[in-house]
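> tool_call: predict_assembly(chains=two)
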Amino acid sequence: MANKKAFGGLKGREIMVLGIIAIMAILFSILSPTFRTYPTLVSVLDNSYYITLMALGVTFPLITGGVDLSIGTGLVSYALIGGYLIVHQNVPVAVGILACIGIGLLIGLFNGALVALMDLPPFLATLCTCMITRGLGPALCGGFGVSWPSAIAEAGAFRKIFKFTTATGTVIPVGIISMIVLVIIMSFVLDHTRVGRYTIAIGSNKEATRLAGVNIKFYHVLAYVISGFFAGLAGVAYAATYATIYPGSGAGFELDAIGGAIVGGVSATGGVGTIFGSFLGVIVICLMKVGLPFIGLQANWQQIFTGIVLIAAVLIDVVKKKE
Amino acid sequence: MGDIILTMKGIDKSFPGVHALDHVDLEVRKGEVLALMGENGAGKSTLMKVLTGIYKKDSGTITYEGKEIEFKNTREAQDAGIVIVHQELNMLGHLTVAQNLFIGREFKKGIRIDDRKMNEEAKKLFDRLNVDIDPTETMSHLTVGKQQMCEIAKAVSFDAKVIIFDEPSAALTESEIEEMFKIIRDLKKKDIAMVYISHRMDEIKVITDRVTVMRDGAYVGTLITEECTKEDIINMMVGRVIYEEPKTESAVPKDAPVVLKVEHLNAGRMVQDVSFELRKGEILGFSGLMGAGRTETARALFGADPKESGDIYVNGKKVTINNPQDAVNCGIGYLSEDRKRYGIVVQKTVAENTTMASMQDFMNGIFIDKKKETEIADKYVEALATKTPGVDQLVVNLSGGNQQKVVIAKWLTRNSDILIFDEPTRGIDVGAKNEIYKLMNKLVEEGKSIIMISSEMTEILRMSDRIVVMCEGKKTGELDISEAKQETIMNLATREIE
């Protein structure tokens, strides 16, 4: 892939993040015997799906030089609405899932319109939709928590997409396969289609891209639509992983995804980034989230460490740019 | 006439590849207004930047009030009493007039900023200058003219002994200019020396005492304003030896078809009722001084900026161009003067930049055909002799001349027939310049048509078949190359606008 090589440090960045993942895994395994068990691995993966999905999507607005803060509260809201339809309105599960994804897509379209058509600063626009989506779910569903059908129930079959329990009780985290497939597909979109090409072009030089005769408004909106679509998917993954969805939660989820993407080499100022990098970055975040409690540090420390890792990641970019 | 307050002698300054100032002399007297004139790139601004410490001179001496000095930064120059009033206003729009005037040197009462005292001081200052501005008014609510007055007042408040005006009238209306002149005359009486950089001949005659002319980074001479004519000044500005042979006659047949016709184009103050035609195989030069509205005309034509009115015909057919997409679809390509900002996507590769305007031809279903992309990029790297290690090289790593070739490749890939070159050789070194010229000549031989905006007189005379001259947003003349001379062009470019 000539493209990758040409992006200079990026490939190096991915190797670096892989190294960090290896070091963290080894360190946690040495310090905690319970960490190096199969259930822990499943737990790390379970906790990673919705963050991975958010990260795959939000990588697009980030590369255009923007951001999407609405995905965290959004995914909870979409899952809430989807679950409400299934449990209280008796719609088929498939319809609930489609509703979840569809609303995410619409909110993405709304974000895109605010940013690309009405020129609102991305931070502000998506902060507003973050608030809107936070209230939207509870408002529509009466403010109660919702539990999607459990894995034992027939209607809970969708949960098996992410976690498959065999007859003997062995748990297989099949979700990771879907994640890898999606990473490959979205890498292709970013590297080999016009959508990806223009997303990067808008992030590196919007005006030059416009003067080349590219319909930048369309592709700029599309970046947010992709982000919203993946927030919808993340909503499904979240509903499949956790027993109950509580209204009003979800604030801060987006930070795990955005942080992961930036650790993985997406430039905070746009123009640079890979899907694979974002994926690896999310794994770093999730390892910290699950791993730190195993070595006796509270979950709060995960936040602190994530912040520090992010500063390091951005510093590397700044120093590299100066050179 | 007063005593000499400032003398610059033998000032020399080189930038990589450019000898910007070549042993320049300048002398300013107390209580006089000295006009500093010259074409674009003559070195006026550079000289003033050396004076105020923005650039460090290579050699030469600056004597100010009898002492040899060298300022390290504008702050030092300000403290010594030398202040520049810039063309672009450096005002903070959300703050009040008084807050702007005293920014960085606020009056304080304990740890609190004393706004009342600042307002009082500002009022005193305005009274002294006979200007009617309310110090408590928000800066962005003032007209451009009033903002300019504030800039001048600020300069005066530094106890300035020398004030440099860098094209102060560019954004002002007639009555605002008149008001500014009143202040300048007032300052003269107070024995303040002023350097006035401007292209407007009529203003020079009205307000200045002497004229110093620069050309190509060198001092040419100084005239007493009262004793000279506009022609004298123009002759000094353009009297260079042209090394490259200028074109003597147009290579385009008189009956060549018109590929582009622009009628009554209007877009703000900088593009007023501009009409012209471009023939097949022609290089149409656009000449004029800075701020003549040439780039604005090109951008309006290309749909990069909105236009108010005007008709555009491509190959005899009327077309609607509302955005760059429309223009590109009409076969027009625009090569910006500011390549880094508008021309290339620096963090992308040569190949990616080459296909940027014509992605639809490089698709295989929904996927980009990278093999085809590499092939076309390779083809143009060879055809244009672009120096790059490969087409997967990031454009940011190429030299200016080679970046320009990548932009040309982009429009050739799009098969654009009408190319607008805006300052095609700006920031490109001499050898590469010739290559770009050869390339442009080859393009018109192959039947492309070119609009070339250039501020370099030699470039205009060497490349153009016909020349359109603009001044302050209006077209002031059109010349066939056979009748074009430096003097005639400069005359049209400085035509007084009633």
